[in-house]
Specification:
The complex is a heterodimer of chains A (about 290) and B (about 325).
Chain A (H helix, E strand, L loop, with lengths): L2 H32 L6 H19 L2 H27 L3 H23 L15 E4 L2 E4 H23 L1 H18 L4 H26 L6 H16 L4 H21 L4 H15 L10
Antiparallel strand pairs in A: 1-2
Helix pairs in contact in A: 1-5, 1-6, 1-7, 1-8, 1-9, 2-3, 2-4, 2-7, 2-8, 3-7, 5-6, 6-7, 8-9, 8-10, 9-10
Chain B lengths: L5 H22 L2 H24 L9 H18 L4 H23 L4 H21 L1 H4 L5 E2 L10 H24 L1 H11 L1 H6 L4 H27 L1 E2 L6 H14 L5 H20 L3 H15 L4 H17 L3
Classes of the chains: A mainly alpha (about 290), B mainly alpha (about 325).
Amino acid sequence: MTSTFLIAQTLNSATFAALLFLVASGFTVIFGMLRIVNLAHGGLYLLGGYFSFSLLRLTGAFFLSVLLAAAAVGLLGVALLALMRKLLSGHELAQVLLTLGLTFVIADSSLLAWGGDPLSIPVPAWLQGAVELGPLVYPKYRCFVLGVGIAVAAGIWLLVNRTRMGALVRAGVDDAEMVDALGIDIERVFLWTFFAGSALAGLAGGLGGVFLTLYPGADGEILVLSLAVVIIGGLGSLEGTLVGSLLVALLNTFGQVLFPELAYFVVFAPMALLLSFRPWGLLGRPS
Amino acid sequence: MNVPPFGRLWAIFALAAAAAGALLPLWLSRYYLDVSTQILIFAIFAMTIDFLAGYCGRVPLGHGALFGVSAYVLAYTTARAGGSLAAGVALGVLGSIGLSALSALLAVRTAGVYFLLLTLAEGMVVYGVAFRWTSVTGADNGIQGVVRPAPLDGPVAFYYLVLAAFLAVLLALRRMVRSPFGLTLHGIRECEPRMRSLGYNVPLHVFLAFVISGFFAGIAGALYALFNGFVSPAVVSLSQSSQGLVMVIVGGAGTLVGSLVGATLMILLETWVSLFTDRWPIVLGLVFMLTMVFAREGLLVKGRALVERWVGSALGKP
């Protein structure tokens, strides 16, 4: 195991962690505030990827496609939220199961629309090639994804900790009823949160579709890994999601390379142990 | 105003249904007899989920693993290792019991959504092992060549075996939910803190319920392996667990028989829809979503309420 190998795999983990963070942060804030476990979140990731793929085919513009796809997925999320608030208000388990049903619909619709063959989004011209990092040669695109992940994390931190909207989001996660009682339109906060969370998943799909392929089943895989991230980090905690993303990405990447036959086990055993002894995760709060 | 003795009427209805079930081979083609066998196997599987979800209040999303482990062990024992059928069944069920005990050890500390997610994760671990442990499970290719010995290889004989198993499991679970143990589980579902304060050992009860559920899921899994002749990772997948849960919820959680209703509906729907289109998962998803919105308690409860209201208004009211 050379140092180049270690650095390369660590960088791979970091870029994957960036992707996981994008997906998991939406998931955890949605849970923290609305107490909704959106099992269709993985489907939103996949749709974001597929939409980006098709939009890119149509327009040829990478960033435009990815951003439009993310927005479309965000709107889809909002529609889902509206559906749930109207029809299933107060029935937590029913909401979770509804999203489970939606998972089937999204997965099969995607199969119908884009087929079963793995698709990958072509790398935009100026991000092709590699950079030299000392002894290591590393793909430019992956560095870009890492950069986006860091930028989004910083952006979310600024938004949540330095803006009024962010304060409302934090208050909503703490005690949504109280915010409502104080006369603030909590429904609008919920809406924007759900939009942002879903759009982030869609964005991750678009970005991830370049170096991870898009295929039926990718939604389940990313969902399951995101679950591991938010449970390890703590449901409702953004800092926890950051820590969780790094941990899960490291475990997953090194696990796949070193113990391919045990890949899932390496990620889920710690998660299962944590769930049974400390269900609120490393940085969450017991509710 | 006389309310008809619904309890007794439904019991008679149940007996009639059981009799009809026993006579099915006389009317049905080979194909539909196989479908009925499949329905009964999945009804058993769904009942095990209902036992945990409907009666104990813990909704699991990883029961496919408990079901499938038994199928895999039986398949491996008989088709690969040359063991006898009895050995295959025994080891399969033991495998399910072992896996459920292990899963339960972690899961009893959680409830609600966390329990759901934990069982989902546990199921994924088993799926991952089934998918990658090529030397034992055959990975994506699965294990083929499970054969049913002489008297059972005919569709009619096997159907009766499965029907007998279904009735046995139904009666056993029914007995259990009406026992003091079952009532404790019910209490845990209704108000866990109160049960704790009354001195009941809640984790132990949940653990036992989980293992009992796993035992019967193992029986269903063994029957499935014998029915299908072939086992693949799909049998331990999240999809399998989800479909089992859908059957329970559509039929009605907390009713046991609702699982049969749910399994019948979902499998017949799948068989019928597949004649026209490949898009069965979309239909499945939509049916599930619609059920959650309009008939959360399930079709059995809703159907029963509707029938009782009609009959009652026809007979009992002036």
